[in-house]
Amino acid sequence: MKTVEIRRRFLAHFEALGHLVVPSASLVSEDPTLLLVNAGMVPFKPYFLGDLPPPAKRATSVQKVVRTVDIENVGKTSRHASFFQMCGNFSFGDYFKEGAIPMAWDLLTSVDKGYGFDPERLWATVYLDDDEAYDLWRQILPAERIQRRGKEDNYWSMGVPGPCGPCSEIYFDRGPEHGADGGPEADEERYLEVWNLVFMQYERGPGPGYEYPILRDLPAKNIDTGLGLERMATILQGVENLYEIDISRPVLDLAAALAGVRYGADPAADVSLRIVADHMRTGAMLVADGVSPTNEGRGYVLRRLLRRALSGMHKLGARDPVALELLESVRKVMGPIYPDLDAPIVASIIAGEEEAFRSTLTRGLALFDTAVAETKSGGSSQLNGARAFALHDTYGFPYELTVELAADAGLSIDEAEFKRLMDQQRRAAKADRAERRIGNRDVSAYRPVLERSGTTVFTGYEELVRESTVTALLDLDSAALLPAATEGDELGVVLDITPFYAESGGQESDHGRLVFPGGTADVIDVQTPVAGLIVHRVRVRSGELLAGVTVSAEVDRSRRAAVSRAHTATHLVHRAFRVALGETATQAGSLNAPGRLRFDFHSPTAVPASVVRDVEEEINEVLLRDLPVSAFITTQAEARRLGAMALFGEKYGDAVRVVDIGDHEAPYARELCGGTHVARSAQLGAVTLLSESSVAAGTRRVEGLVGLDAFRHLARERVLLNQVASAVKATRSEEVPERVNDVVTRLREAERQLEGLRADVVLASAAALVDSARDINGVALVTAQAPDATGAKDVRTLALDIRGRLGERAAVVVVAAATDGKVPHVVAITPAARERGLSARELRGALDAHIGPGGGGKDDLAQGAGSDAGGLPAAFAALEAAVAGQGR
Ligand code: SER
Questions:
Q1: At what angle do helices 97-109 and 131-138 cross, to 10 degrees?
Q2: Is the C-beta atom of 225 inside 6 A of ligand 1?
Q3: SS3 sequence of 598-666
Q4: How far is the CA of 111 from the centre of ligand 1 (A)?
Q5: Could you tell me if the CB of 348 is within 6 A of ligand 1?
Q6: Predicted confidence band of residue 442 (pLDDT cuts 50, 70, 90)
Q7: 39 lines ligand 1 (CB under 6 A)
Q8: What are the pLDDT digits (tens) for 538-575?
Q9: Which ligand 1 atom minimizes the distance to the CA of 86?
Q10: How much of the chain exceeds pLDDT 90, in percent?
Q11: pLDDT on residue 436
Q12: CA distance 503 to 147
């Protein structure tokens, strides 16, 4: 049975049972506790928790899922993949175990509408004490095919705080040729898990493994099930593993062809091929959902997958670029269901990453070779962990590749040290993320507040002042309720209705104030810690603020206007870059602050300054046209039909807000957007773009100023230009570049001459110094302190000059100077001195004790820099003694 048919039957089965068919959400998780969607239930989490009412009591979906915890197993076992599709049915307080178990059983065993499994080959597991599920299964299966298992196998949570509960899993017995008897408890390669039915009834708190606390019973008893589509296809298509099913095999075969190997010929190569096929597909799906390769967060997950795939190809022998061809085969199999894969940006991002990786590989290999050579010459057979970490961290060289290449070179790697450094880095990143949350706290603490206060109504599109009621005062760290706050206190305030815009979609929050009987408080930040709840961070200026009072909530109008100008400008920048560079130049991120914006966009190469100027001109020209800016609400599907730019990877609910710049028939720019904007484009005044730079492979950044800030910037530049003009005596600004060039050229020439003169002065002393040579047991010794501030280069020139003048004689020359707190010095000896057994390197060593250590060299010439010029007389004496002692 083809994968599409398995999928169709799943959805049809549950639709017939009254479930709403919900399309897959983006892989980019909306949930702040997860980077990527890792289960079919993730988009439904607020319904399980009771934070939002569900769109229906029953739902079914086939959700895109990425899991990288098992990444080490990918390619090695038959059943682990980093990307897969999870078919699920969900009940939000509707049916429970008694519904979920028979619904699953019917689909698995029905021949014409389901998957036609032989009931004799199905097994079930239940959680240890779940007699209810056990009894339900007993009505279907004999006792010997039901197993009770512990928390590790039969208790499910997202791995982070959220809904959880005991589960029941259904297994298919692939037959004795695949392993021992004894059910799933004995062998999970033979007994393949096909379906997990989770009985969601608790909310868990934070904690590792299964050591988390259960916080509460969920408001209702729910069902969340997950059936791996690819795993089902593996069984129904009778293939060995999930890389060989209809939607994976073509990628696998192409990878083999590109590498010039045959799948099935060599087990080690097969593992690599499966890794390539798996990771390329996952990578493509992530890019199609708007993820770009970067060095942190989900961008890093993507980068790692792509680089592992590409280094796998390299290891298999492929030397030419392969990414686009592999992507094309992924598209062929996945494109019919996921048309976003066809967007040109997907190819350009993946090709860009391959290009970046190929140069990394070249550079990394060179660094790796040096590391190997140094390790070996140091007599060790273990590459140190810091080296491997630097290759990985600084140069993006995959650790796996380092391990393999090291093994080829006969070296092991200090893995413990590598892991320690990785952990250290991970902890730092985690702390950094935690910093950014409101009040530094796990946001789940805010959920009870939402329950108490209800969803905050936002009215800030229409009004900037609002009478409203304080429904909660909160401690910002713990989210605990406070009865009152007084002057100087900083706390969280929840209102029933608010005109304050909470930071989101790159737009900074409103500021303003709350006026209450007997006092005022400044609003200094506004956030949405959990969906639906707006929390104002305020500092009480005067009076006593009490929970329950009525306040006048007043948004700072000029800040709001300045942020709105920046946001409208960002839409124009987005549009104008696409006009200039083509439709692939889509937004990768943005910041809209008062009068200032930052816009990140996809582009495989740097954008020439001339293009940035064109874009700037285009935008300012649009401002002059004074286009109307307006917003309307519509459905997701209609917005797409109308050609609204939706940020790839952002998940929007069904009702979406669309912002148009220009008239509705043919707007200049149209985007899905929840932000605030000006009413007409001319209100922006002016936009200037400041700089263009790189943020990550394939992602560029421009910064811009808007309105008066743009004007002030231009005015400031003019003042600066005038200052430069008068400094170089230019009468018109056009003359400035040439004048400055002149000055720079003349300056360089003068510096060159000065250097020559300085060397002449230094050398002029050479003859006198030669005359000052003393005879130490037949060796001529010259010790000289050059004038203060003589640089290392001149010290050396002088020493060599003196040595040259001493010609055939056995002679030792030492020159030193006191320069910027350092003591640069050179010891040079003639060949005749060397014949007498003297060594410049060893003689120089005699200086260290007196002027501070630092230096090295060869037998004929050594140099260094000490730190204590006061020790020079003693150092020279020590050197003289050494000459006396060393020479024969
Ligand atoms: N959430 C469960 C899982 O991911 C069932 O959908 O296995």
A1: 40
A2: yes
A3: EEEEECCCCCCHHHHHHHHHHHHHHHHCCCEEEEEEEEHHHHHHCCCECCCCCCCCCEEEEEEECCCCC
A4: 25
A5: no
A6: low
A7: yes
A8: 999 999 999 999 999 999 999 999 999 999 999 999 99
A9: 6
A10: 63
A11: 40
A12: 50
